[in-house]
UniProtKB/TrEMBL annotation:
InterPro entries noted in UniProt: RutC-like_sf, YjgF/YER057c/UK114
Membership in a protein family: Belongs to the RutC family.
UniProt source species: Roseibium polysiphoniae
Signal peptide boundaries: none
One GO location term (cellular component): cytosol
Name the UniProt record assigns to this protein: RidA family protein
SUPFAM superfamilies: YjgF-like
CDD domains, sorted: YjgF_YER057c_UK114_family
Length: 139
């Protein structure tokens, strides 16, 4: 494969109630420099347990915990994040979510896009965050 695929999974395992069968991964380290992190939600990556159901700040904490872990597994650091996209199911969650994200990315200054969507893949998920990181050539 052209890129390193980290934490491969199949959607039939993640969403057993849905009739889908996609081979995906949590992170793609492209050309050894760029890291693409799949949208993260309030879910433990090792157990698939939903975390902080009904608590958007708690779900955001878990999403950012996942992003940090995945970026590090791909050889990067939070400081390497250049782009994040935040998906909210309710615009009233924006302040709580961005407060948590801001704490995790203090001093990083990534590009950020916020989108309000009608729903995420599961009704208990209130926020999803994806990220792109670039590891400098001199590291």
């Amino acid at each position: 494969m052209a890129h390193t695929r980290i934490r491969k999974f199949n959607t039939k395992d993640t969403y057993p109630e849905q009739n889908i069968d996609n081979d995906l991964c949590q992170v793609v380290a492209a050309k050894g420099t760029m890291i693409f992190v799949r949208g993260q939600i309030g879910q433990d990556l090792d157990t698939s347990e939903n975390i902080a159901v009904g608590d958007v700040a708690g779900q955001t904490e878990q999403a950012m915990t996942n992003i940090k872990m995945l970026v590090e597994e791909a050889g990067g650091k939070l400081e390497h994040i250049t782009k994040i996209t935040i998906y909210l199911v309710d615009p009233r969650y924006r302040e709580d979510v961005y407060r948590v994200v801001g704490k995790w990315l203090k001093g990083v200054f990534p590009v950020s896009t916020g989108i309000v969507v009608s729903a995420l893949a599961r009704p208990e998920w209130l926020v999803e965050v994806d990220a792109i990181a670039v590891i400098p050539d001199d590291e």
